[in-house]
Amino acid sequence: MATDPLPQPTNPTPNPAPAPVADPTDHAEARLAKLRQLEALGVDPWGQRFDGHQTIASIRELPCEPFNDAAPGPKVRAAGRVVGRRKMGKVYFIDLWDQTGKVQVMVGAKQVGELGWKIIELLDLGDFIGVDGEYGKTKMGEATIRAAGVTFLTKSLEPHPSGYYGMQDMEYRLRHRYLDLIYTPDTLRRAHQRVQIIRTIRTFLDGRGFMEVETPTLHAIAGGAAARPFETHHNALDIDLFVRIALELPLKRLLVGGLEKVYEIGRVFRNEGISPKHNPEFTMLELYEAYGDLFSIMDLTEGLIVASVDCLGAGRELPYGEKTVNFAPPFQRLKYSDAFKEHVGVDLFDREGVKRRAAESHIPLALKDEKAGTTADKEHDVLVHELFERYVEDKLSGPVFVYDYPAALCPLTKRKRECPELAERFELYVHGMELANAYTELNDPVTQEATFRRQLVGLAADDSMAKMDDDFIRALRHGMPPAGGLGIGIDRLVMLLTNTQTIRDVILFPLLRPEVG
């Protein structure tokens, strides 16, 4: 008996196919033998172009009445993967799947002819076929394509995974993402939603006069963030290079060059740890707007996030794990110092109070130089940062803009004129996860050079992070307009908006250890 099709979503969230039940006769040798039989029939097992086919979702939107030879239904042409196959006498029922959904195909020996019937009998789960036929309902009320012709398009030589509810082993899913997309509904849904979100970001920024640019991936100096880079060597030039850790400094050079609104969505690489929120290779949005500042970028960020939420069509109150997030603007705005005092219990500028609170929290008050065998007191702002991470971040349910950060934590940020100990920076938090980071950009070359030099103190000469970007300072000396800048981790944004708890599930190919065996 034919099974019911998967329900079609009102929002474009495609339906991956359920994994087939294991068949003990389904193995690679048997599939290869069927390939040879197809070749003997004169059928190309790897197929040819198949023009004019419709998506399965668009077929399912057509009028669907019970089959009636006196009043035929719509003529359709479909192509996809075979994910189900049942025989009833001289009729096969095939479940045909593409990335937009699934539909039943009814194939009769009389309708498709001798060659078509032999092709159907040689089908395995995972093969690709094209179907021409009529769309309507069976006697059981099942929406179905009644095939008038079958075209073989590709042979699958490996058995597909078993178990109706899909693949359960995470390691297997990540290493076989191509199968994961077919048989795990949420994986394909997230892939489509990620594309929707990125497309929306581009449309939003383009509509506000921003220019999308591309900047180099290989840098002579690893700059723009405090992160450990991946190193490589350029053979032709015989120079060592770094794979970029940030997009920032080249984009600011473009501000100097007169491109007043620029952005890039690009991959960055940091040779650091892996966690549910970190992958060594990830996607960043960075943008810069001449004549803007911290608060103009805050407004822009809020609009961009809301547009990204709206494009998914599920409303502005979204689930995240066991919690919900209300993205209805305006977002909360909270000073760093106020959040610190509320949750840590001491004033941000109370040096003795911060030391005491750090000691009570068993945070080391000194750093040891392993090479020199000496220790030095941690700077006040380092302790502030560690206390903030421990006591404040997980209290920020948000969306909340936390702004006016300690200046020592923000080497590329303009200081507040009325309080130079603070920097004009914000971070956007949602349920303790940092989602965006933005500044009023530091465009004073003298202060910027001094800040860079302070960062380099104590680093070994051969350290990849111990090089001054003199060209960037030179660019600033030619004049960069006052500006606001923003960075958003695209992977984290997609995690949040698709209710995904690990970054590996929103990156199609996350970094994995080499497969053993």
TrEMBL record:
What family is it from? Belongs to the class-II aminoacyl-tRNA synthetase family.
According to its UniProt record, the EC number is 6.1.1.6
| UniProt cross-references to Gene3D superfamilies, sorted A to Z | Bira Bifunctional Protein, Domain 2, Nucleic acid-binding proteins
Name the SUPFAM superfamilies for this protein.
Class II aaRS and biotin synthetases, Nucleic acid-binding proteins
Positions that bind Mg(2+) 1: E427, E434
What InterPro entries does the record tag this protein with? Aa-tRNA-synt_II (IPR004364), aa-tRNA-synth_II (IPR006195), aa-tRNA-synth_II/BPL/LPL (IPR045864), Lys-tRNA-ligase_II (IPR002313), Lys-tRNA-ligase_II_N (IPR044136), Lys-tRNA-synth_II_C (IPR018149), NA-bd_OB-fold (IPR012340), NA-bd_OB_tRNA (IPR004365)
Q: Which superkingdom, per the lineage? A: Bacteria
GO biological process terms, alphabetically, are: lysyl-tRNA aminoacylation
Aminoacyl-transfer RNA synthetases class-II family profile domain location is: 197-514
Cellular component (GO) terms are: cytosol
Region of interest called Disordered, as start-end residue ranges on this chain: 1-27
Free-text cofactor note: Binds 3 Mg(2+) ions per subunit.
What does the record give as the organism's lineage?
Answer: Bacteria, Pseudomonadati, Planctomycetota, Planctomycetia, Gemmatales
GO MF assignments: ATP binding; lysine-tRNA ligase activity; magnesium ion binding; tRNA binding
Which keywords does UniProt give here?
Aminoacyl-tRNA synthetase, ATP-binding, Cytoplasm, Ligase, Magnesium, Metal-binding, Nucleotide-binding, Protein biosynthesis
- Binding annotation for Mg(2+) 2: E434
Self-association state and partner proteins as the record states: Homodimer.
Residue spans of biased composition, Pro residues class: 1-21
What cofactor is this protein dependent on? Answer: Mg(2+)
Q: What is this protein called?
A: Lysine--tRNA ligase
Q: Which reaction does it catalyse?
A: tRNA(Lys) + L-lysine + ATP = L-lysyl-tRNA(Lys) + AMP + diphosphate
Q: What enzyme category does the UniProt record give?
A: ligase
